[in-house]
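Letters spell out the chain; backbone shape is given numerically. Take this protein:
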Amino acid sequence: MKPIGAILLMLFIILSVNFYVFYRFWHLIPSGSIARPLLVTFAVIIVCSFFLGLLGGNFLPTPATSFVYKIGTSWFFICLYLVMAFLLIDLFRLMHLIPDKFLFGNWASFGILTGVITVIMTWGYFKYTNKERVELSINVNKNTEGRKPLKIVALSDLHLGFSIDKKEFEQWIELINKENADIVLIAGDIIDNNTKPLLENDVASSFKKIKSKYGIYMSLGNHEYIGEITKSLDFLHQSGITVLRDSVALVNDEFYIIGRDDKMNPERKSIEELINSLDYSKPIIMLDHQPYDLGNVEKNNIDLQISGHTHQGQVWPISWITDRIYEKSHGYLKKGNSHIYVSSGLGIWGGKFRIGTQSEYVVIYLN
């Protein structure tokens, strides 16, 4: 499907889903109530907020864009759960398990439905704000006699921008610094979709507060491209991060960090091209944002790969979809002598909800 066709299809789906939700709410509200025209007003505002939040970053003031982005993308997830609820209710109605009097002009049903959805989304916000610390101890088949385990803090998918601001990010930095890591590795998507709020709020200076013995290394993610790759790279260099874009760093003459360019670049180098001149007696760690083709990780004897991108679907039931798309959509996987960890991400896209998934940072002891 051509890009314009995909965009039009997505637009049709979003508008259709919203129409269905508000159509069902319209019938739940008693006729003649002032709440009906208020519902229409709310519908127009909330749908416009979604599109303004995604498209208004370059022409609206940052505070305004941030406001509509948060509102619109939060509604995206709320709407998902309302659709599931209304489809289930309509199914029960067709099976004559729910009388029509409960579905038309009934304030009690309106209140129960909105109350249940509010509880679900409040729980999702709580899960998002309470970050999970995941700890792994990994043994690699390399001669590292006499060396202490390498302590890595691994992150992915920060999505800093209009939704996740400098203040929230610096709360995460406190968690990172408590680890006293040897090195911090980021598997892409530091940026959400625009560098404008990051530059205006000097988020680059916050990265310089992260403490680690060997510094911060990262690979690019697809959102660095969405945010315009040249602007993204400028911001990342200002932040003092070592960006590995199809390149390799030998750290302290002890271990390698490989950073693959994201799959958004169809001309990125293969793993074979990146490793052909390395000393295989040293541990090899690879950052690759999107966890595809994991068999190649084993084939090329990569000791540890860290990925992200999937968010593990972010909320159920989208997590079911990511579980079927990826060989491993979240967590630890061992293939031969290769160790792979796919992070569900420290940050989030859009609305700040985690339902059936977690926001996490990973502490890895590489032995």
The chain has twelve helices and twelve strands. The mean pLDDT is 95. The longest strand covers residues 132-138. The longest helix spans residues 62-94.
